[in-house]
Amino acid sequence: MKNIRTIGIVTLMVVALALTSYYIFENQKNSYDQTVTSQESPETEISDNPDQNSEVENHQTLSIEEIKDQTCLPAQKLTNNKEDNLLQFLNTPSENAALSGIQSISTNTAHDFEVYGSKEGTSYALDNEGRVFIWGSGINISYPRLMTEFPKVKEMAGGFILSEDNDIWYLNWDWGLRKPVVLPKIVTSLSNIKEMKEVNYSDLYVLTENGKVFLIEGSYGDPSGEEFEMIEVKGLENIEQIYISNDLLFAQKSDGTLWKVSQYTEDDKDQTAVRVIIPEKVVNVSEGVDYAKTFIQLESGNWVSYKHGNDQNEEPIISPLENMSDDLIKIVHNKHGVIALKKDGTVWGWGDENYNLVPDQNQTVEEPIQIQELHNIVDVQMGAHHVLVLNEQGEVYSWGNNMNGQLGRFPLTYDQFRTIGSFNDNIEQIIPVIPSMNRPYSFFVFNKGEVWGITSELDIERFQFNSEIDHMTMFYYDLAVLTKEGNIIFRDFNEECTLLKFNRPIKKINGSLLQIEEGNLYKLILKENGKGFEIKGVNFAKESLQHINLQDIKQLEDFPILMIVTEDGKLFYESEMQGEDMVILKQLEDISPIQEIKTMERAYFHSFFDNDSSEPIGLAIDKDRNVYLLDLNLDNTGKGRIIIKSNMQLDKIVDNISSFTGSLWIKDTGEFQDQLYQEIKYDSVVENPEEIVLAESNYSYFIEGPGLHYHVIVMENGDMKILGDNPFLFYNYTAQIGKVLIE
Q1: How many structural domains is the chain composed of?
Q2: Sign of torsion, CA 562 565 566 568?
Q3: What is the dihedral of CA 298, 301, 304, 306, to 10 degrees?
Q4: Predicted confidence (pLDDT) per residue in 264-311, tens digit
Q5: For residue 604, which of 559, 643, 564 has the smallest C-alpha distance?
Q6: What residues make up the domain containing 11?
Q7: Is residue 504 part of a domain?
Q8: Residue 51 forms part of a structural domain
Q9: Phi and psi of 238, rounded to 5°?
């Protein structure tokens, strides 16, 4: 098929790019994203050698002692009582109205939009009034959206719509606008259409009342709809029903024989059916995307498993399927599970533990088990990673993977600042956490000497330390806290802690950048083997020495390069390395006095340091509330994370700013814009922007799958608002059974 081949070429290009990115990421990871092993490291100390650093100011000697497993206690999960909890969440999406009055359901068949690293899926519902609802990957929305572009509809097959006038319409996706585009009717020469089956996004098999079958072949993404072509399938007459399973069309003739045709042929025009040799008449065939087997029901009521060979021309293996009841009326399947519907309206399933396709099972289920939550079910449909079922009352249930909103129950994104909860106190810090399957937290919160974690399940946990805490930061991907004694505790996601004791108290910390009481700066890094820490000195270029008072430093920033801001508004940035143990800071001259700087999340910069590059890294605000874009230029070829040379410049972009974070600015009028994504226009405003007390951002982009990009603000009254991707769904896409909802 034309569209599949095009997608295949694009996929190869994406894989090549991803492998390159993965190589870059792994090289960086080896140098700074290591887990510290459980051991006590010898003391490490650094002092300046005046002969080597003649252009910079001398340092005090700083040494560290590393102590493992001395300071951590298990996190304390809090109750939902208002008096005990830090954050009260607002009503959950499950309290929305359920989608109802539905007569049929559908999902995209075949590969279900599966692309590299993503778990895609699109869902459809047709109501009793002939209206179509759609949600999921095709339009990137989280709840069913009513489509008003068609006349009254009588049947759906994935992205194809059959009107009561017997016209076929096709839903095509405009990926620029991220919304469905309805194309003109594409088939007018066929009449008396009996049944439709979608295969591979933009292709459709049609069965007519006179028993003939046609392939309507399209071009995925064609904005005009003019490239659709109709081909009659040879060898198929007197067909009563058609099925799609594993990229094969199965056609059941009136005499009970079963025929098949592969969509993939050397000649796209060669659609010729061949008979499947089965000893009995066939009455039913399963549908899905398993790539290995199809289930066939015989006239006797028994089911057999039809296993495909690796070669399409290879003779298939047909074997009886044990423990398969003859009262099963429909079976759907994908790579990971099988769902079966019985005559009594119960639903049964078996398969592996992936995506919760067999609910509440954490291991492979070899034999069918009943899904107890479901009764009076009249239809089941299965995408590549999710399941839809319809009950007698016209309600739709879903479960499985929800990475692209295919379950229709959870908000994937917020296109305006949405209040999700309210803190019971005025918190001091909030840090978005870079997500991982092994990291259950979405946010860390610091308030009155206590550190809290907000999990993806919306649980609140209090972290317990044996020391009083001054403030918190992230050291690469782990939580780090500064104690009142001036030491640092690292807490990883296995609840293991490492205490770093310094011979001189640490006054401030942000990531890897430290300042001691005397004012001197140091950079803390993991050793290349990940076993222990070492310190690099931080000093100033000779021409900048006269402009810096170490006690006047008010802000530290450590990523993507070291930067500091002083009380009088001077900005210094990491300009080069001197030797292997000294970082040199240089003043950015001829700028307005800077009040504060904010950079994007560290995951945004994974590939930034590999070659010569120029890239915006964040925003700066001056004392007159003007905002500037921070542009960094690197001369860094082949040196990875080590800075060879860098230059920075500020470009004014907007004035009258109330707040900012990452690359997002919010004006005193409440208007806001993300400078990196200017093509996204927001039609809402932030109410009372002068009451914003905290603002943070997360820009996490990975080799495969979707990224995570959002902003969080906290207001004076404690309200927590989020704009962008829903942080509580990332790496938590799999959901149990629930009703599809209307937003």
Answers
A1: 2
A2: positive
A3: 40
A4: 555 556 788 889 888 899 999 999 876 678 899 999 888 888 886 545
A5: 559
A6: 2-28+42-77+413-725
A7: yes
A8: yes
A9: 55, 40
